[in-house]
Amino acid sequence: MRFAVFGTGIVGQTIAHKLVSLGHEVAMGTRDPEATLARTEPDGYGNPPLSQWLAERPSVQLMAYADAAAFGEAAVNTTAGNGSLQALEAAGAGNLAGKVLIDIANPLDFSQGMPPALNPVNTDSLGEQIQRAFPETRVVKTLNTMNAAIMVDPSLVPGQHNAFVSGNDAEAKAFVVERLVEFGWPREAVIDLGDISTARGTEMLLPVWLRLWGALGHADFNFHIAVA
Amino acid sequence: MRFAVFGTGIVGQTIAHKLVSLGHEVAMGTRDPEATLARTEPDGYGNPPLSQWLAERPSVQLMAYADAAAFGEAAVNTTAGNGSLQALEAAGAGNLAGKVLIDIANPLDFSQGMPPALNPVNTDSLGEQIQRAFPETRVVKTLNTMNAAIMVDPSLVPGQHNAFVSGNDAEAKAFVVERLVEFGWPREAVIDLGDISTARGTEMLLPVWLRLWGALGHADFNFHIAVA
């Protein structure tokens, strides 16, 4: 199946790599592919430049957002949350119409320093903002509550732990659950929280996630809902 | 040991009952003890009136906030979050000075309907508001992320799950961990998130907690942090 993966950061790379390894076709979408490919320095975290990453994965194509969106039969949003709406506007409502959009982004605002604030919060969520802006697209929020490596390899964390899905379209959620199962998630580990407004809940997990990262000293953990 | 338990709702009753069953002395604090005792009708949830609950537990005394605060060597805040600061002001800074205050409240705002919003959020928390308002008191936020019954009987939920502590005073946190162990929590199930500002993280768990309650259809669950 053909996927557009919007965003070229560590989450985008991780998801794109996994999709390709499963036999899917992937176009990574970015604002300016030429500028992205021209970068030859490691990024701020010391990761190799995307050109090198792409050279090692010739089946992944880098495209402008709109071209990637047109290529994909479904799409994944891994852009930084504060730029997601702009990126998706560049992708184009027409190119995304009728398609499932898996939204992994969190609306973190780093402008006031660390820890980042969430914006929106409480009465709205990034997932809902995207669904409202793209009413023809079937938005499903998932995987935004864990480190990228765990998203595509839940066995990195032993024992039971969960992925959440939020969305208005039952068929789209079922499609996403199949992708999670493909990623290695036990079907029973996926909790359907309800409609897209429940993304408020999972996005609001980020503050405690960041504090747990600090307290544990690493990000190799995930939320598990222990149920009686 | 003598405890003040502020608040007479289900959380206050549950904590007071557990403390008494462990051999501690408990004064429940409320705004107007006579008015509380005069109520003979079940509350809005169908629970029996507090007078009946107290009649079955003669060792628990009901007092005005200030008298309960003076009685307690330590205190527990189980009042509704939007009234906690007012309740604690009535308890009196002098009566609480130097004491550990275990804060279980969540700043839920039901004024705009369901689901409630959190206020404050992001850059502040109820735990920090209380610590700022009562600088001589050693505030420890804990147990605000689960149903009352589970707070004092974690075995109600099988398998591993966690309680969090947030606070500025290491000795106060150690005291609270001992109380959690007394309540039945395995010591290793208690995660020290750091200073009281980390209460932002646990208070912001409430929105997803409420959505999980809806999705699961019951409140007999708790958060577990699965760690690699």
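Chain B has eleven helices and eleven strands.
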